[in-house]
Amino acid sequence: MLRLVGFFVLAVAVTALLSQLPVVGPVFRHSGLFGLLLVVALLSFVFARFGERVLGARRMRAQVHALEGVDSAHNHGKIGALYLARGRWRAALSHLERASQGEPDVAEWWYRRGLAELAGGEAHKALASFERCAGLDEEYAYGMAQMKRAQALQELARPEEALEVLAGVERNHGPSPESAYRRGVALRSLGRKEEARQALAEVSTLARQATRYQRGTAGAWALRARLSRLL
Questions:
Q1: 132 & 83 share domain
Q2: Which residues fall within 8 angstroms of residue 64, CB to CB, at 6 or more apart?
Q3: pLDDT mean over 82-100
Q4: Do 76 and 125 sit in the same domain of this protein?
Q5: Do residues 189 and 154 touch, judged by C-beta distance below 8 A?
Q6: Which range (51-55, 118-122, 174-178, 194-198) has the least confidence?
Q7: What is the domain extent for residue 224?
Q8: Could you tell me if 129 and 99 are in contact, meaning their C-beta atoms sit under 8 angstroms apart?
Q9: Model-wide pTM > 0.90
């Protein structure tokens, strides 16, 4: 009960604060109950998201603690994967290095290690990791290992090689918003402007054709393509 009262007191205080701001102030001063309800909805959303993050962090700490109970390459790989999933590539990298050294025949560890290295700006190391992964399983993660290999090549200013890799990805899996975007960037690096423009324009078409669970990611690639065409 006290939490509920405190929540509504906070909502009233935030509404009063917003009503004093230069741009939105007049809106909130004249919105009455609607303004208060809007603040309640926004605060509810913020607190819910914050609670999810706190709960997720606690759950991850518990999982890491359990895995640390047995010092094995496999467990280090799992710990690295947990950190990587939360965007903590620095924490992930040391675990994934130990995993790939201890279990060098497991493609997953090389793939995830490459992702962490790429996030850290170490494209040379990432390329080597993705190539090790592809050597064990050429189509690991439904072609994403090769896609990331192309990204590393592009970051190393090797667009011709990136195009060769992307051609293989699209031949085996069909074009996707990401592959078309990366193809456009590589073509532009080679001065093939018209082909690059066509590839970047293709991204939006592919994004519209994406399945429901892919639409969020596809839309992000379409936005990147549009921005790239403007630059």
A1: yes
A2: 79, 82, 83
A3: 95
A4: yes
A5: yes
A6: 51-55
A7: 175-231
A8: no
A9: no
